[in-house]
Amino acid sequence: MERLETFTAPGMPVGFYWFNPPDTYHFGHGAEIVTNPETDFWQTTHYGFQRDDGHCLFTRITGDFTMTTHVTFKPRSQYDQCGLMVRANAQNWIKMGIEYEDTAVSRLGSVVTNLGYSDWATQDISSAVSERWYRLSRNGNDFLLEQAADGKTWQQMRITHLQSGAPQLEVGPYACSPIGRDFWCRFTQVEITLNQWHLPA
Prior knowledge:
- With 201 residues, the protein is mainly β.
- The protein has a single domain, classed as Jelly Rolls.
- Helices cover 0% and strands 58% of the residues.
- It has no helices and 18 strands.
- It has strands at 3-5, 17-19, 24-27, 31-34, 41-43, 50-52, 55-62, 65-74, 81-89, 92-100, 105-114, 117-118, 121-126, 131-139, 142-148, 155-161, 168-176, 184-193.
- A hairpin with a 2-residue loop joins strand 9 and strand 10 (92-100).
- It is globular, with a radius of gyration of 15 Å.
């Protein structure tokens, strides 16, 4: 399935659906999300809690693919975050994005959750950043996560694996506010193409 969705129509695009819908959202000038209070995705590791109530605008994709998105955002509270997510089920998923820390520094990173345990890989990024491009590619149960400031010069975030990657996965933009509320973000596009991450010859 190849597709470019810019969310210019006022209703839900065909083939997309909410997982944990936010109380406030808009389509027409991108896909705008305003987060509900204390929403998050995390499983067990270190903190001991399990959270699976963040907001996702998903579509289902079978087989290998590349998904790209562009998002602008205005964090309000610590840990506000948005980006891309791929999900097999509550125990096996990946999210990538920027998580707000304070007015100086935020965390550009990703969480990979396998068999009910999450990890967290990050690097510092200025909190002055208010937009980002993300690209996620699938080869079997292996995934390449990339980010860019301009949608052209891509930088690898990580290569990882899902232990339980079904042939069909849920994939799309996500946003959440683990300790806050009313975090606003706008996804201006979601593009799905054939897999652009090729194995070495």
